[in-house]
């Protein structure tokens, strides 16, 4: 990071140094032309105008400002280098004018300055026109095609500079009769010049057409930035054909300023509004002028005098202007805004994503919403603040939108501004608000799918555990008892023939064995997992038990249940917790005469903590440990937990069970 920052600092210093050098060279021009130099004999040029300074300052300062903010963006360097070449052309031409017309010829290098001025203007114009658009707005070619295009354009500029710098003949644009002291072969100039012309014409055409295609195909904000560049360049080119050079100077000087704004802060100046109005009203104005002018001329041949031609032309314009303006407005909005020109199309496109299967539907739908709205950052959080899905990184001010489905709060959607903007616009906020219900449906469906998967896992695990317990109990308990009964009956049958007096004793033992089997069957049945646990989970089963005991109903104790977000419980722990709560609620309903009963289920230090508190009579001082309390302690101990029953303050009973969530 330190090396990167040092490099950026060097670039910034270099950019401002070049800008300062450019302004310093421009400051030398008045000294070169002082003393009436432009009125000397042989001068054929009027000299530089003040608007040349505007152009030079625009390129130098805009480029330095862009380098300051984006030191790795090559557009800033293109601007300052173009400004330096322009001021070099004007400054050395002014010096050459003074040196070549000085009566005593005391100033050196006059011809060299004239030679330098003869070709430095070429790259100063071609670099911004041919090389800058393929690099705009990121400072890097958008593809490998544009990378090769930039190389070819630089080659063409280099060849045309070589051709201009080595061509024989005069450099007498300012001082009449000034000629270079060499005579290059004619074929050299033609070969290099024609090659350069072919490369420059082709690359210029590709730049113009390719930039238009890029603008049409690009997404926000690159589309608006490219259209902004094309608009300011078109405005500059339009001033070339006017008689007023100052208009061209102002327009040309504002091009680098507009380019810098387009790269850095285009959203702050309402560029979209300017583009839409310009692209709408300029063609409409030209259309109205052409229609009125053409029809007036045509009707004037039929009716040479009177207001009839103008009235007829105005009537035709009045009929055409409304439908044409409507169609043109639609085309301009589609060109400038892209998909945002028709929000319903975006809503339909996002809605179509609901019909497609995805591995992560929330993330996929969030990407569709972010793409449709053009946001650089979007994240979905659940009601607890956890990140469900995320797109991009936060940059700039964000806004939060609630995600609701069927009146249930599912979480929040946070969106950031578009790339290059500092905040979310009202239009984007309205669009995302319209898309949020579609996203909420997906979030709700994903949450239900997760809950269903957890419930399926819980029920499957509990069912398998219960089946294993039944197999073990039947094999270890009931199996030996039934085998003993069978053996006893077989022995009694044999004794009936051999020793009839032994039969009663054998039948008595068999009867006792049968009673053991019956008790074992009852024990197995009593130990079956409650059905409500599989149907409703621990929380639902506790509520059902409390309701069946009359709690929460008129005439019964008030009931309150609070639970944390519990993990998937082991079937043994879940059943033990339910049995302990159920037994405690039964004691409250039958013996305590309580008015209020509260149950708390929460997770702490890797344990499930169960608390049942009532405000009833409490434990009797002489009461011992009944069957119910012993059963609760045994169930807690079976899963490695503990149980504590104690008086509550000021009265009532508090039952606390601590059950480990994981096996020790």
UniProtKB/TrEMBL annotation:
Residues 572-663 form the Histidine kinase/HSP90-like ATPase domain. It comes from Kribbella orskensis. This is Histidine kinase/DNA gyrase B/HSP90-like ATPase. CDD domains: HATPase_UhpB-NarQ-NarX-like. SMART domains: HATPase_c. It comes from the Bacteria. Keywords: Kinase, Membrane, Transferase, Transmembrane, Transmembrane helix, Two-component regulatory system. The chain crosses the membrane at residues 15-38, 50-67, 74-92, 112-136, 148-167, 187-213, 225-241, 247-266, 278-300. The lineage of its organism: Bacteria, Bacillati, Actinomycetota, Actinomycetes, Propionibacteriales. SUPFAM superfamilies: ATPase domain of HSP90 chaperone/DNA topoisomerase II/histidine kinase (SSF55874), GAF domain-like (SSF55781).
